[in-house]
Each structure stands twice: as structure tokens, then as C-alpha cells.
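Possible regression after last week's pipeline update?

I re-ran a chain I had predicted before the update to compare outputs. Posting the input and the new output here so someone can diff against the archived version. Not blocking, just want to make sure nothing changed silently.
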Amino acid sequence: MNDRRTILIRYDEIGLKGKNRNQFIDCLVKNIREQMRDVEGLEFKAPHGRIFIYCSLESAEECSRRLQKIPGVASASVGVTRPRDFDALAGSGTKVAHCPVNFVRRGILLESFARYRAAGIAIGIGTDTYPHNMIEELRIAALAGRIQERSPAGAKTAEVFEAGTLGGARLLGREDIGRLAVGAKADLVLVDLENPAMRPLRDPLRSLIFTAAERAVRDVYVGGEQVVRDGRVLTLDRDAALARLVDVRARAEARVPERDWAGRTGEELSPLSLPVMEA
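New output (post-update):
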């Protein structure tokens, strides 16, 4: 029996990036260490902006209780500490939900898309952050997987597409989505093969994922109901939504100091990429 536990600590990430993120994590880890100073056998790690505590089975519950009272900690999840053994993960029935855009923005890569697949571990690709662009997620998953393995075979186009369709369905335990089949839901995406980004038309899937992306999407059906026609969303007043978005962004940024641990403004936490020049 494995008597070691891993606690994954999640924190409020609003506006955190660059030096601000590093400073916040340093302060949070220091505070956590202080609150846990009398608990023996703890090991702290904070790789790539994630915070882990490795502890004994006996101390896991007490650590979790204390973490709930520390400012800046959003949640703490306790799991079993395992070696990085793909066979063990496969044998346990582990399934992987992979949101690559959210990963790469933080300088993180999935351990190995190819090795997870080779071990028979189900992978489903999804979105976890704006702009919720599924085709972009597939493209980044393919590129990141190849970088990780230093090989084009690290994440083949067809494998990534399967993870974004059938893979997601498997993770959800669903057989009525992720495929075109009798009895499955009529979820369809029609791609304009005449779009310049899809030409020359030799490998449509590769052209869609690596070149055209959503620009070539013409029509979309969800459960048999058309929700996009000629690239236009039918279920949303886009202009009105965009107008509301401007107001919502302003109100959200005004509240940033209330939610930031140091009371900083949105401009301080997330400065613009380039300075605004006064006219």
C-alpha cells in the first residue's frame, strides 16, 4: 500500500503572469510553509506555477484542513503519489483531459501525448480558456506533442483529431457523441473546401488544423439544429454581446484590487503588451 499522498494546491490566478505570478507563488509557498511548520515529513515543490505538497497518509487530512484557511488558496486536492509509470496509469483506468492552449500559455507541456497513447491511456482534448477554439486546441496539441518527443510522430494529425472527438466522448462515457454513426447525435461541422487556406486540397484534415482553422468553418449543427450558417452564429446576437462585453470587462477590471491578495490594479497585474501613446 502506498502511504504517501500528493496535495495539488490551486490558487486564484486572476491577472497573474510573469513576475507578478512568481512573487505571488513565492509568498503563498512561504505562508503555507509557516502554517505547516509543525507537520513532519512534508516536501514542497512549485514547478511551472503549480504547487504540490508531498506528505504522509496520516498528515494529509490535517494539511488539507489548514490549507482551506490560508488566503490565496482556492482549493486543495489530495491524490496518491505514484511514479511516472504509464503502465501503472493505464492499469488504474486513468483518463487524461488535455487542454493544451491553457498549458502552453503557462510554459507547460503534457508529459507525452505519444506515450500516453502507446500505454492505452485515453486522452480527450478540450478547451479551458478563452477563446475556446477547438481547432486551435488541436493544432497546439499536435505541435506541443511533437516538440515534447522531438519528432513529427510525437502527435500525428489523425491521433490528435481522434483525441478531440472520440477521445472526449470516451472520457465522458458517451457513445452518442464524437462520431458520425447511426444513433449518435447529429453534431456536424461543414468546412468550406474552396477557402484559400484549405487549398491545394490534398489532406483536408491537415489543412483545417494547421492552416485554415475556424476561418474555413461554414456551417455547424448541434443535435441536428443548425447553429452556424455561412460562418455566422444563429443563436447569438453577436453585436449586442460584444457591446455588453466591453462593459463587463470594465466592471471586472475595476474589481481586481478587491480580489488580488496585494490589492493591485488590473494594470499592475497585467500590463499591456505595448504602451498606449497619447495623441
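Follow-up from reviewer: compared with the archived run. DSSP finds eleven helices and ten strands in the chain. Marking as no regression found.
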